[in-house]
Amino acid sequence: MVDKTHPKLDERIEPGNWTDGLDMPMSLMDQIPEDPASLADLANRSVVSGKQFSREQAIQLCRLAAKFETTQTMGQFPLTGKILISAFYEPSTRTRLSFESVWHRLGGDVISITDPSTTGVAKGESLHDVAEMMSHYGDVVVLRDSNEEAIYEMLDVLRIPIINAGNGTDEHPTQALADIYAIAKWRPEFLMDNPPADKKIRICVIGVPGRMRTVRSLLSFLALFSPAIKEVVIICNADQPFSKGQKEELEEAGLKLRVTADLDAQLPDTDVVYINAIAWVGDSYEELGTEYRLNDSSPLKDGSIILHPLARGEELATDLDNTEHNWYFAQARGAVYVRMAIMTSLVRF
Amino acid sequence: MVDKTHPKLDERIEPGNWTDGLDMPMSLMDQIPEDPASLADLANRSVVSGKQFSREQAIQLCRLAAKFETTQTMGQFPLTGKILISAFYEPSTRTRLSFESVWHRLGGDVISITDPSTTGVAKGESLHDVAEMMSHYGDVVVLRDSNEEAIYEMLDVLRIPIINAGNGTDEHPTQALADIYAIAKWRPEFLMDNPPADKKIRICVIGVPGRMRTVRSLLSFLALFSPAIKEVVIICNADQPFSKGQKEELEEAGLKLRVTADLDAQLPDTDVVYINAIAWVGDSYEELGTEYRLNDSSPLKDGSIILHPLARGEELATDLDNTEHNWYFAQARGAVYVRMAIMTSLVRF
Amino acid sequence: MVDKTHPKLDERIEPGNWTDGLDMPMSLMDQIPEDPASLADLANRSVVSGKQFSREQAIQLCRLAAKFETTQTMGQFPLTGKILISAFYEPSTRTRLSFESVWHRLGGDVISITDPSTTGVAKGESLHDVAEMMSHYGDVVVLRDSNEEAIYEMLDVLRIPIINAGNGTDEHPTQALADIYAIAKWRPEFLMDNPPADKKIRICVIGVPGRMRTVRSLLSFLALFSPAIKEVVIICNADQPFSKGQKEELEEAGLKLRVTADLDAQLPDTDVVYINAIAWVGDSYEELGTEYRLNDSSPLKDGSIILHPLARGEELATDLDNTEHNWYFAQARGAVYVRMAIMTSLVRF
C-alpha cells in the first residue's frame, strides 16, 4: 500500500519559494556594462566549439543570461514562428529537454528526433542529405551525435545555424558556458579584466580533458578568464590526460595547469570543484575517475562551490545537496538562461 | 488492390455532425451554481490521488469541464508560454496524447519523454535529481510510472505541480474524474446533495479494486457522491478484491458496497456499468476478469449506460457502440474537458 | 582530433544565400489565374489518394504553394489553436518532420506518435477505437502505416480529416503533388490546357508502378496533365510492372505509357527523370531497380531535370548535386509549401 500522506500535497507551491539567489544575477547585471555589438556578431552563426567565442562574447552571454534569469514572466516571444530541429542521434533526456524548454519559453516550436534507429541515417542516408532536408524544415538545429565529425559534415551544406549539444568525446560548448555563468553568478569578479588578488580563484577539474567533452569545452572557456584564475588543477590518474596539443594551447592562452591524482590534498585550497564521471564513447559511456568522490566529509574549503553538469552518479553524494557547496543545482537552473541567451543571439530577422 | 471508394471521401466533415449531446453539458451547467472559491484552492497544487478532492471541488471541476465542452472555439489561450513536461516512463499513447492535446488547446507548449530507455533514470539517475531538473524546465509535470512510489519521490523536491497519470496499480485520478463527469452529464442529479429517490442509481464495477488503478481512483470519487448511489456492486471473482483497509474506508465514507461474481444477474437492475479488463503490473499488464463480457445480448436495463476507460479489448463488444448504452465514447470525449478544467485550475499566475 | 576549422564557422548565413530560384514560383503565380472556388471544395476533406484531385485542384494547389514559397515571413498564423496528430505507425523521419514543420509554420501545435510499439494498436486496440480517440484530440491526422487498408478503416469513424502520408505500397499523394509542383516550377506550361508543342515533355519514371507508392500516386497526378506530356516511359525490368487495371486506367485518362528496361537509351530524349529505389513492404523495404543509376556521366539531355522523393541511396550519385539537373533539392524544398497549401485548404473554420 502506498502511503498517501505527503507534506507537499497540503502545500501550495509559491514561486517565492524558489527564487532564492535572484540577487546574484541582479548583481552580475549591475557589474557588467551591456555591449550589444559583441553579440550582434553571433547572428546567424553556428555554435560548434568553445574556442569560437571571444572573451567579450562569453561575458555578454552571461550578462544576457542574468537578464533572462531575473525576468519572471516573458513579455514577448522573440522566436514566435521559428522552428527548432532537436536532433538527438545519441539519446539524451536532460539536454534535449533543456533546449526544447528554452526554445518554447522564447515562443518557438520544436520538431524532434529522439530515436535514431528510425531515421534515414540509420538506413544509410548521408549527413549531407539530412542537412539539406533540415535547412528546409527549421530555423536552428541542435545536434547530439556520438560521431564527433557529424556536426562538421552537416555544416558543409546546412543553410541554418547548428548548435553542438555534444559531439562524441569532443565538445559540449553550451554546457561549458553554463559552467562559466555559474561561476560568474557566485563571483562576478571572475569576469573582470583585473580582478582583485583576493578574488582570484583556484579551480579543480576532476576528469580527463582529452576524453570528456564537457571538460574540453570548459577548459576552452576558462582560458578566456585566465586573469581571474590562479590555477586549474586537473584531478585524474590517466597516463595521458590531454589530447594532442590541448595542454600547450591552453597554456599559451594564459591558463596555469597542473595535474595530480590526489583530490583531497587539493580541496582545502580550492574555490571551485568541477566533477563529472561520465565520458561518452560511441553509443555507450565509460565512467572515468570513479575513485574520486565528493561528500559531506570531503575537506572542502569554506565558501567553495561544487559544479557538476549532471546527471550524477555516485561520485557526488546527495548529502552535499543542502550545503553551501551545492552550486550544481544553480548551475542547472542557469543552463536554461544561458541557452536562452545563445538562442536569441543566434536567431535574428 | 485497395478499394479506393469510401463514402467519407465524398463527404465534407461538418462540426455539426458530431456535437450531439451538447444539451447535456449545457444542462449540467444550468443545474450547478458556479463556485470559483473551491477551485481557487487547487491553484499550484499537485494531483496525486482521488482522495485529495473535496466533493465541492469534484462538482466544480465537472461544471468547468461542461463549460469547456460547450465552448466551440477558445477565444483565449490561458496557458500561453507555459510548458508541460509529459513524462511517460510507462508507455502510453491514449493518455499521453490526451494530456498533450489538452495543454495545446489551452495555448501551452509540451516537452515529452516517451521512451524511458533513453532517460537518465534508466542509467541510474535518481528521481530526486530528475524532479530537480524538471522544476527548471516546465510549469507542470504529468507522470506515468509503473512504480507507484515514483510520484511521491518526485514530490519531495519538485517545485512545480505534478499530475498522476497512472502510478502502477495505485491510482489514476484524472481518469476517475472523467468517469464522474460522464455520469453527471447523463444524470446531473448525481451531483446533488439530496437527489430524488427515483434518481438514485446502482453502479456495477467490473474489476478488482485492490489491483486496478482506474477502479481504485473511481471508488474514491464515488464515495463523495454516496447520497446519489443506492449501491456499488463489485463484479469479480478474486479472493481478495480489496487492498488492506480499502473497503472499510469507502464504507466509512458512506458507500454501500457489495461483491459478487455473477454479472448478468446484476445487469437488469444496474444503471451504470463500469468495465475495464486491464491491470498494469510493472512493465506489463495482466488481464483481469476476462470471463466478464458485455455485448448487445447482455441483459442491460433500459436507459442504463456503460463506461470504459479504454483502450478496450474483447470484454466490450463493438455491437454495443451504436446502442443507447454506449456512454464510453462520450466519456472519452469528456476526459479532454475534465483535464482542461484540472489544468486551468492548477496553473495560476 | 577533430579539425575545428570549417569555413562555415566564419560565415554568417544570410537568407539571400539560398533564395535562388524565387523567380520560378513568382513566374508560376503570374501565369496561373487564382481560382479559390476549386480549393474551397477541399475544405474538411481527407486526402487519401492521388485520384481524388481534379486537374483544377492540383493546379490551384501548386499556385498556392508558390504563394507560400514566395512569402518570406508569415504575417499571420492560420492554424493557431489547431492540433495535428502526427501518427507514424511505420517509422519515418523525413516525412514526419516535413508535416510537423509545415503545421508549426502555419501556427498550429502537434502531438506525435513515433514509436508504434508503445501504442494501443500494438496491444490489440482496433483502428476504429484509435480513430474515435483521435477525433477528440486533434483537428487533422497525418497517417503513415505499412498496412494499406489502415487509413480506410480509420475513415469509417474519424470525424476529422486524415491525410495519407504513405499506406504500404499503395499511395503517397502529398509527395506526388510535390513532384508535380517541382515540374511546374521548372516549366509552368506543364499546367496549361494547350501547351506549345515544343514545351511538351517526355518523362522517365524509374520504378515499379504496381509496387511503389510514390510512383503510383505520381502517375495518377501525371494523368491529369496529359496535354503537356509526350510520353511517360517506365524504366524497370519487372515482369509485371503494373497492378491490375492500373495501366488501363492511366491510358484511359490520356497518358501515353511505355515500358523499357534500358535507361541510358532513353535519357538523351528525356526532359524529366524520376528515380526512387526503395519500395516499402510491411515493416521493411525492398530495393527495386538498383541496377539503374544516375550520375554525372549519364547521357542526360541538356536542360533536363532529375526528381527523387529522397532519402536517396546509391541510385543517385552526389556528383549530380551541383549540376543543372539537380531538381530534387528544389523538389524537397517545394514539398514544404505544397503541404502548407494542402493543410490550409483542408482546415477551415
TrEMBL record, chains A, B, C:
Aspartate/ornithine carbamoyltransferase carbamoyl-P binding domain segment(s): 45-184
Gene3D superfamilies: Aspartate/ornithine carbamoyltransferase (3.40.50.1370)
Entry GO terms, CC: cytosol
Residues passing through the membrane, by range: none
Claim: Phosphoprotein is one of the keywords in the record: no
GO molecular function annotations of the record: amino acid binding; carboxyl- or carbamoyltransferase activity
Domain Aspartate/ornithine carbamoyltransferase Asp/Orn-binding: 200-345
Cytoplasm as UniProt keyword: no
Keywords of this entry: Transferase
One GO process term, biological-process aspect: 'de novo' UMP biosynthetic process
Family: Belongs to the aspartate/ornithine carbamoyltransferase superfamily.
Protein name: Aspartate carbamoyltransferase
